[in-house]
Amino acid sequence: MSLLTNMERIESLFNAPNTKKKWHSAFLVIYCSRALASHFTLNNKTKQRKVNPSPSFTVIDLNPQQPFTIDQTTLTTIVKEKDHATLKKHGGIEGIAKSLETDTEHGIKGDEHAEDMSRRRHIFGSNTYPKPRSKSFVHFVLEAFKDVTILILLCCAALSLGFGIKQHGLKEGWYDGGSIFLAVFIVISLSSISNFRQNRQFDKLSQLSNDIQIDVVRLGRRQQVSIYDIVVGDVVCLKIGDQVPADGLFVDGHSLRIDESSMTGESDHVEVGKVHNPFLFSGTKVVDGYAKMMVTSVGMKTTWGQMMSSISRDVNEETPLQARLNKLTSSIGKVGLAVAFLVLVLLLIRYFTGNTKDENGVKEFNGSKTKFSDIMNSVVGVVADAVTIVVVAIPEGLPLAVTLTLAYSMKKMMADQAMVRKLSACETMGSATTICTDKTGTLTLNEMRVTKFWMGLEPVLENAYSSVAPFVLQLIQEGVALNTTGSVHKSKSESGSGSDFEFSGSPTEKAILSWAVLQLDMEMDELTKGCSIIQVETFNSKKKRSGVLLRRKSDNTVNVHWKGAAEMVLKMCSKYYDASGILKDLDSEIMRKFENIIQGMAASSLRCIAFAQTEVSDSEIEVEDGEEKAMVKENGLTLLGLVGIKDPCRPGVKAAVESCQNAGVNVKMITGDNVFTARAIATECGILRQNQDMDGAVVEGEEFRNYTPEERLEKVDKICVMARSSPFDKLLMVECLKQKGHVVAVTGDGTNDAPALKEADIGLSMGIQGTEVAKESSDIVILDDNFASVVTVLRWGRCVYNNIQKFIQFQLTVNVAALAINFVAAVSAGEVPLTAVQLLWVNLIMDTLGALALATEKPTLELMEKPPVGRTKPLITNVMWRNLMAQALYQIAVLLTLQFRGESIFGVTKGVNDTLIFNTFVMCQVFNEFNARKLEKRNVFKGLHRSKLFLGIIGVTVVLQVVMVEFLKKFADTERLNWGQWGLCILLGAASWPIGWVVKMIPVPEKPFLDFLSIKK
To answer: Which reaction does it catalyse (predicted)?
Structure first.
């Protein structure tokens, strides 16, 4: 049927009579439905029909997940088994690179080609590892139920509930047992929520600390990416101190030595090269040399796939302070247990001797006349009261307070550019008495720039480089380009008018490269292509120089280039070039002149670097397995020139140093720079004062090393600056300081700093310039490499310790008061004034809300006005004992007065009087929380406006107390109070303020009040 005919029929519908329109409409719907069904069936058949290609037909596979020409199993086997035969079968390293579609010089396409990255991850996997399962909320709930006192309370609640319902019916009988159930539920819920949140926060910090930044080459550009973003085929740049991020093959480099002890357990370092051993394993460390590697396996496909997951931090580690508090909790708990047992015995004796009466004055026990259910109900009530006394007496909130304050401070420290790797470092830092700091990047900006250039004995101005002999400039350029671990990436500028340069490497390398490229017009690519490197001596902090032996392709000559600390390189030279290119002898007189030039630059806070060169004869070159080998010559060199590099002091570093000194913390600068540069920077930073006696304050590492052990111990306190020091000298100083009783914090960034970082009480590594070895050896990573952040860590460390002391004072006041009141009342009156539910509520105020309020106080300036705590000071100081005993005695006096005289004094019933006791006790804690904010200062309101969380918790506590008293009569066993009675409770609670103000004027002796609570660190 034609389309025209169909259209005519459809048109006729609009002209049809009304009686036929319904039938026509139905027909139209059926027809259209069949037409659509037919259309889709035809399309499916067309898709399924096989099409014969024409002779010119070409198949293009557009599947982005197409496989590479080598599989993962083969790649894994080659590296894991160190299988040279299979490697050779696939064309060697170049063949593997071709199979992985990798350019060994320019890397993979990278992030700009997302489909390539996606394909590599899909086929070879990602560089991630299974994380251990996080503890669920249910886990923390179950942990809370393991507390014996909680279980006893629940048993008491169940028995009380059963007997109560049997005796009074469901409507009235559930109150006592149900109230205990509800109170226990609230306590468990809040503590579980708190612990769950802190555990999650520690998990996040642990994951962040494992997120290492790796140098890779992608599309010819060197860049940093997360270790988790590494893919198979990536070309990774390795240098001393780096962690190998995945399994792979050596592509290019020199003098590479690897520490494989994390994998094999062997301490010997393994040489890695292109011919004999090109295999690199994930998790191993670079101890010498530099190289490029091509990644062949990532994540769980690597030989050491579980390595990264195994180094994740144990979030359950117990810090020294937590251990001390657990011991303190145990000691106080024993006292509480003894009191509770005594109360239990006394109450049971009074009950069974008929000395207890109910609300109507009738004896509760009448021998055999008393029902068994009544006896059991009373006994259960007595047991519940005794157990609740134990709950309140045991200060289990102390470890919770540590967890809270550590979690809070860690979060805040992260915002202040300090990442905590070990929890114990937070509290230990508060006791630090000495900080040994690096210079470069920590005290200075690490933004280096060449500001001076000397050829021979004459300075060369920036606009006068053309006056220097061209061949000498060529030699300097050659030395800069070939003797470096940095790189230069050239790209077209956004304006299109020229080129932009990107420099990578250490700050010193970048400064020299940018000077050579921008001032000397160095063409790095041409120079590197025009030479082949024979041997490399990599830079380390001990030698303070680096060298390269190379062969020029143009004339086939062999040359040695050295670069490093000026006085070190100068000692290796016997000749020098002047600016006109004339070669001259370097005699002792000229040597002194050069030394004066170096000292002059150093006195201006410049880092002085020298370049030297000489030609080597072919007879000194050996050939082994087709490779040229030779030692890099270290004497008889020709000095090419000197450069002075400026690295300005960081803004605010002088104030930070002064802040430490005011806090009684000594700051010592340990640097590899020469003594003149070190002295100039130390003076600029405030470590050395202008009028200070320099005798013994500034030493060189060699001098300190050569002292006898007795001399070192005698002189170490006076030393402020140690110049030209090696990592061994730094370690030696840390050991000396610790022997003298100092708590030592050390900053470090190099691989060789690892021993000193481990030996120190607090190891602080640098996040930007620090090697992975240094970071793993440290307790805290300073993310911005800034000394001011080190001072921030010190401030937070003191804050942690101070907050814990505040909470101890607050909680022990409640413990002492509650124990004394219940014990005296039980002995004299045969009953406890505070019921189980009321004591559980007080326990909640103390443990969770109190910890949250006091443990999250921010650091104040006052903390940096006091000397450090040190190793031997007791946790509970005499000042704290004075404060807590005064407040506890006041509370005991007030509450016992209400207990024995309250009804007669105020003319109230026993129920109202018991409510007055409970309400006054809670109000005393609320007001005493303000006193606990300041252990020594009388003005407890200073800085209160900044503690919004503290004020919020106080407000919540007061509101909940009003609800407990006024609206939860059955639950809390209370009576409503009138305005006058509320005013009385508030007045009695507020009296703790003037008492605290007066008490803080009472002097205390220096000797610890209770030696058995002076638990040493």
So the answer is: Ca(2+)(in) + ATP + H2O = Ca(2+)(out) + ADP + phosphate + H(+)
What CATH class is the domain 72-128+228-307? Answer: mainly beta
What number of residues does the chain have? 1017
Of the candidate CATH numbers 3.50.50.60, 1.20.1110.10, 3.30.565.10, 2.40.50.1020, the domain formed by 320-409+795-859+875-1004 belongs to 1.20.1110.10
Tell me the fold of 449-492+501-646: Calcium-transporting ATPase, cytoplasmic domain N (3.40.1110)
Q: Give, in order, the Cα–Cα distances in Å from 157 to each of 150, 301, 351, 364, 391.
A: 10, 55, 20, 20, 14
Q: What DSSP element (H or E) covers 822?
A: helix 787-829
Burial 698-718 (b: 16+ CB within 10 A, else e): bbbbebbbebeeeebeebbee
The gap between the terminal CA atoms of the chain, to the nearest Å, is 99
Nearest by Cα to 733 from 795, 671, 792, 826: 671
Which of helix, strand or coil describes residue 220? coil
- Strands (DSSP E) contained in 49-186 are none
Annotated domain spans of the chain: 72-128+228-307, 320-409+795-859+875-1004, 418-445+650-785, 449-492+501-646
CA 615 to chain CA centroid, Å, is 50
| Close Cβ partners of 728 (under 8 Å, ≥ 6 residues apart) | 542, 705
Residue 578 identity: D
| The pTM of the whole model exceeds 0.70 | yes
Q: Is residue 686 a contact partner of residue 652, using CB atoms and an 8 Å limit?
A: no
Cα–Cα separations (whole angstroms), residue 447 to 239, 440, 483, 508, 611: 21, 10, 21, 9, 21
Distance CA 21, CA 23 (A): 6
601: three-class secondary structure by DSSP: helix
At what angle are helices 910-932 and 787-829 packed, to 10 degrees? 160
> Which residues are known catalytic residues?
438
Quickly tell me which residue has 């169909």 as its tokens: 6
How far lies 540's CA from each of 439, 727, 897, in Å?
16, 10, 75
pLDDT at 718 over 80: yes
Buried b (16+ CB within 10 A) or exposed e, 841-868: bbbbbbbbbbbbbbbbbbbbeebbeeeb
Neighbours of 958 (CB within 10 A): 14
Q: Is 554 left (phi over 0), alpha (psi -120 to 50) or beta?
A: alpha
Tokens representing 356 are 């207890």
437: amino acid identity, one letter: T
- Other Cβ atoms closer than 10 A to 618: 11
pLDDT tens digit string along 654-666? 999 999 999 999 9
DSSP element (H, E) containing 422: none
CB-facing half-sphere around the CA of 535: CA atoms within 13 A: 20
In CATH, 418-445+650-785 is 3.30.70.330 = no
Tokens of 542: 């001990």
Pinpoint the alpha helices (H) of 251-317.
261-264, 307-310
To the nearest 10°, report the CA torsion of 332, 338, 342, 348: 100
Task: State the alpha helices, DSSP H only, in 642-726.
Answer: 653-662, 675-685, 701-706, 709-715
Asked if domains 320-409+795-859+875-1004 and 449-492+501-646 share a fold, the reply is: no
Summarised one tens digit per residue, pLDDT across range 557-590 is 999 999 999 999 999 999 999 989 999 999 999 9
Let me know: does 575 contact 639? Beta carbons within 8 Å: yes
What CA–CA distance (Å, rounded) separates 101 from 590? 56
Q: Quick one: pLDDT at residue 173? A: 64
Q: Which two tokens stand for residue 339?
A: 């009191």
- Strands 434-437 and 744-748, by their bridges, are parallel
Cα gap 966→838, rounded to integer Å: 14
Whole-Å CA distances, 473 to 326, 343, 478, 635: 69, 93, 9, 21
* Closest C-alpha among 677, 678, 683, 699 to residue 598: 677
Taking only the tens place, the pLDDT of each residue in 317-331 is 556 676 677 777 777
